[in-house]
Structure formats: structure tokens, C-alpha cells
């Protein structure tokens, strides 16, 4: 029998018991009250053990929930750290890419400038050789027609 039922039965015995005239006292059956007290002694340890079991179970659930909450917090921190690391890596990669692009543009400008200078030197060399060749051709041509130049002078 549960403690509540035993207490309800004790209350019923008290209310149904006879009164002692001119006092607030009542006559109660000692055997019946003793039996109910024995039942309380038998039932109470089980009830206390059940209450302790419920308290322990509640504490276990609370501890598990606390541990799970801490795991979720740790996972969130790891995720944020990973995102931050990935963002840092991305930013560093972008900076390196920009540096490479700037260096490539500078190299391109330098190469273009060097190419123009080289082409200018080549054309100057060819022009000088062509001028010398033209002079040789003119001299050869004038030796073939020596009279033409004298006639042109006389006219």
C-alpha cells in the first residue's frame, strides 16, 4: 500500500473514532493504528528508495544534457575556428594571387620594354647595313657609268 493511502486510512480512522465527552480527545483502536504504522515502516523505505532512484535518474539526465550541451558548444567553437581558418587561408591565397598578378604585369611591361629596345637596336643595325650596302651599290653604279656623272655635271 502506498504512503498516501495509509495516511488517508489513518485520517479516516481519526474522523470515525469516538470522542471523549467535554474534551478534544478521541478514542482510537490501538491495533488498527499499530497495523497502519507497521505498514508505514514497511512502505517508507521503498518509497524513499524510489524517490532516491528518481532523483538519481533526474541527475543523470541533467548531467547527460549538460554534457551534450557542452559537446554542441565545443562543436560550434570548432566549426567557427575552422571557418575562421578557411577564411584566413582564402584571404592569404587571394593576397598571394594578387601579388603574383602584379609581378606578372610588371614582368610583362619589362619584357615589352626590353623587346621594343631590342627591336630598335635590330632595326638600327639593319638600317646602317642597308645604308652601307646602298652606298656600295651607288659606288658600283657610278663606276659603271662614269661618263653619266660627268655629263650631268657639264649640263
What does this molecule look like?
0% of the residues are buried. It is built from three helices and two strands; from the N terminus they run αββαα. It has one domain. Helix content is 89%, strand content 3%. It has a two-stranded antiparallel sheet. The chain starts with a helix and ends with a helix. It is an all-alpha fold. The mean pLDDT is 87. α1 packs antiparallel against α2.
Strand order, sheet with most strands: 1-2
Q: Which percent range fits the helix content?
A: over 70%
Task: Count helical runs.
Answer: 3
Kindly, what is the distance between the CA atoms of the first and last residues, rounded to a whole number of angstroms? 157 Å
Question: What class, by secondary structure content?
Answer: mainly alpha
Q: Main sheet?
A: 2 strands, antiparallel
The count of domains is 1
Give Rg in angstroms: 58 Å
Shape: rod-shaped
Helix and strand succession? HEEHH
The beta-strand count equals: 2
Mean pLDDT across residues: 87
Low-confidence stretches: none
Question: What proportion of the residues form beta strands (DSSP E)?
Answer: under 5%
Amino acid at each position: 500500500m502506498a504512503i498516501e493511502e495509509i495516511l488517508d486510512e489513518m485520517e479516516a480512522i481519526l474522523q470515525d473514532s469516538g470522542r471523549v465527552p467535554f474534551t478534544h480527545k478521541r478514542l482510537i483502536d490501538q491495533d488498527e493504528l499499530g497495523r497502519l504504522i507497521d505498514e508505514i515502516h514497511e512502505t517508507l523505505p521503498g518509497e524513499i528508495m524510489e524517490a532516491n532512484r528518481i532523483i538519481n535518474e533526474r541527475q543523470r539526465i541533467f548531467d547527460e544534457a549538460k554534457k551534450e550541451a557542452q559537446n554542441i558548444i565545443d562543436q560550434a567553437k570548432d566549426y567557427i575556428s575552422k571557418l575562421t581558418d578557411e577564411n584566413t587561408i582564402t584571404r592569404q591565397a587571394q593576397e598571394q594571387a594578387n601579388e603574383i598578378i602584379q609581378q606578372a604585369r610588371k614582368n610583362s611591361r619589362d619584357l615589352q620594354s626590353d623587346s621594343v629596345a631590342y627591336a630598335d637596336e635590330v632595326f638600327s643595325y639593319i638600317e646602317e647595313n642597308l645604308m652601307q650596302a646602298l652606298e656600295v651599290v651607288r659606288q658600283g653604279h657610278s663606276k659603271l657609268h662614269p661618263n653619266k656623272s660627268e655629263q650631268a655635271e657639264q649640263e
